[in-house]
Automatic annotation (TrEMBL):
It comes from Emiliania huxleyi (strain CCMP1516). InterPro entries: Glutathione-S-Trfase_C_sf, Glutathione_S-Trfase_N, GST_Omega/HSP26, Thioredoxin-like_sf. Residues 7-95 form the GST N-terminal domain. This is GST N-terminal domain-containing protein. Pfam families: GST_C_2 (PF13410), GST_N_2 (PF13409). One of its GO terms (cellular component) is cytoplasm.
Amino acid sequence: MSSLTVPPITLYTHTACPFAQRVAIALEATGLPFSKVEVNLYGRGGFDKSQLRRVESDGGLRPKGYIPVMAIGDEVIRESSTCVERVAALSATAPGAVSLEPEDPQLARELIRLCDTLPKAPQSAALDQLLRKADAVLAARGEAGYLAGSAFSVADACLLPFLQRVDLPTDAAALRGYLARAHAMPAFSRTVVDSWWWWW
């Protein structure tokens, strides 16, 4: 990967956050070199919210102090799905990087939208709809398929942090198999931590 000519990438993150995990998964999956800065969200000490607000302000954003924030050279981006899309665009043009472009972009957008609009509750009709849809898509693709095609894509990076945090339906065999395969993937397994937030 040292032959990649991309601007320096920095992910401002907190390992317990599912939204920041999305971006970490995307970066890991592409093979793009990046560094991480852990943000102390709950007090002072180390890199904290006030320092993150300076990064946002210097990058032309109205400071919020929320994670994830990603810097690519002088470009500063926030909002997890936007960061994942930017990583995918960068990976499509970087020599040697693994592309995250989905084979079915419309399905990828729909799955990400369903995930992004879920209520902040452990159980809901919307969550059940998303899980059932993902299970049906995976069942149709077979044992080696992914959410938006035959290869890992932005849809997988965006949904996996949430899929690992919910109780899957007992009859969602394809979704259970997919999650087991995902845990064996270094791009995902390197981002999984013992203690995490269920939702933001």
